[in-house]
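User: Show me a protein chain along with its predicted structure.
Assistant: Here is one chain, sequence first, then structure tokens.
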Amino acid sequence: MKQSRAYPIYTVTKKAENSILSGHPWVYADELTTSPEQQPENGTLVDVLNSKGRYLGTGFLSHESKIRIRLLSRNANDTFDAAFWRRRVEYAWAYRKTVMGPEDLACCRVIFGEADQFPGLTVDRFGDILVTQTLSYGMEQIKPVLFPILVDVLRKDGQEIRGIYERNDVALRAREGLQENKGWFTLPGEAHPESTQTTICENGVYYTVDFENGQKTGFFLDQKYNRRAVAKIARGKRVLDCFTHTGSFALNAAFGGAEHVTAVDVSQLAVDTAKANAQRNGLDHKMDFVCADVFDLLPSLEGKHNYDFIILDPPAFTKSRKTASNAMRGYKEINYRAMKLLPRGGYFATASCSHFASEEMFIKMLKSAAADAGRQLRQIEVRQQAPDHPILWNVDETNYLKFFLFQVI
């Protein structure tokens, strides 16, 4: 290094060096070769060097996580002050204004963790509410600086923001030595809204979002444009939407002109929410709702119902590589059953939101399911997550959503 640095120094293996130079921002605990004699405080900024003393980057230290250092920057001239974080927020917001239509900015992911160079931080916007999830110790420490900047940047761009709600009620925080919690973040000199529900409009469909109790941050924004693609195909079809959650695919299909839509979920709360959303949009006259386990329901429907468009959008069946093969058996079962249920010429949408169920594995599973069902798949579209969930090609973890549209022949 050519200059004196104020940050504690960690050196890393050649494997870690190669990973960093290729663009990946994580350093694992077993990739550290030397560390400071006196252990720095958890969450502090540290420098990462190779075995020859070459500067590789600066990032947050996490004592308890297997991901021991999450890099923020590879620029030795960066100073991590308020101006640095403002530039990062402005950059993330400018990107979304570029890749999304103005009508979509009111409901979008404003910050997508490592893909936006905010390791472990998610920020979703639901109208005038920002909902955050913080999963790294270092990012937790800078919230008092970062969150007011986030609000200020959006407001200066003419966006109305009334509050920030934190959804930190996730077990992953324990791996960082953080407590689970949820509640309003107090912005200096401001009172937060009383209600933890809000209304959003996506693709012309209105939803009530319960950002205190809903899954993740309250609503899945990553399928925004995939739902729009489904709406185009659904016109005049009899649609079965499996794993409907709050009814987003089902409602888009009905809004797009489907003859009838049946929405299914194993959760009665989800079914009730989907039904309320249908009533809110005046679509309940062409929809019905079923509380059932899709694995049980699909076999029972064979030969009894005449659906010509089936949508499968299940939750992640695997959250680790160790269970990926078992998960593929679950994916195959529901995809096989859906293909069997469809007539030749019917339409089929299928998705996986698990990073560990790779696209290669998913395609192999679909081919096997189609062969067992005696069907051929005519591909219409292959899609991924919406661009407000950007994919970094050198960070595989940012690439997680697979979405396929087929005609079954």
